[in-house]
Amino acid sequence: MDEILNETVTDSDLKKFEKNYNREKSEGNITFGTQFEYAWCLVRSNYSSDMKSGITLLEDLCIRHPDGKRDYIYYLAIGYTRLKQYSTAQKYVNAFLEIEPNNQQVIGLEEHIKKQIDRDMIKGAAYGAGAALVVGGILSIAFGLSKK
């Protein structure tokens, strides 16, 4: 799963698909295929702003072209996972698994997301405990100094 999540688009591919998308956009007729290819590249970019743009294009495709929804949902789950928006990614994983419940790649993505959520919860608890110890130490020192 890490290989899929860490795969990035080459600059040449991104430029090629962006050029095709912009050409069709200027002509006023963006095909579903061109929009999907460009969105797919953007979701695999190293830049979060590109990933968000790709997600927007994929969400639009889900509405306007339901025939491709399976692929769109998959890349939406990938995009949101790459952005570390795990709860939204999980919603798309669940939607995909309703369509295709035994897809091992998506089940692997679901496991990855759950591990990340658990890891974030542990980090949050550790930060909270550490902050409480620091505050407690400061208060102890302040209280000790005030008795002198």
UniProtKB/TrEMBL annotation:
The keyword tRNA-binding does not apply. The keyword Membrane applies. It is found in: Mitochondrion outer membrane; Peroxisome membrane. One of its GO terms (biological process) is peroxisome fission. It comes from the Eukaryota. The chain crosses the membrane at residues 124-145. It holds the Pfam family Fis1_TPR_C. One of its GO terms (cellular component) is peroxisomal membrane. Keywords: Apoptosis, Membrane, Mitochondrion, Mitochondrion outer membrane, Peroxisome, TPR repeat, Transmembrane, Transmembrane helix. CDD domains: Fis1 (cd12212). It is a single-pass membrane protein. Its main location: mitochondrion. TPR repeats lie at residues 70-103. InterPro entries: Fis1, Fis1_cytosol, Fis1_TPR_C, Fis1_TPR_N, TPR-like_helical_dom_sf, TPR_rpt. Involved in the fragmentation of the mitochondrial network and its perinuclear clustering. The C-terminus is required for mitochondrial localization, while the N-terminus is necessary for mitochondrial fission. Belongs to the FIS1 family. This is Mitochondrial fission 1 protein. The lineage of its organism: Eukaryota, Metazoa, Ecdysozoa, Arthropoda, Hexapoda.
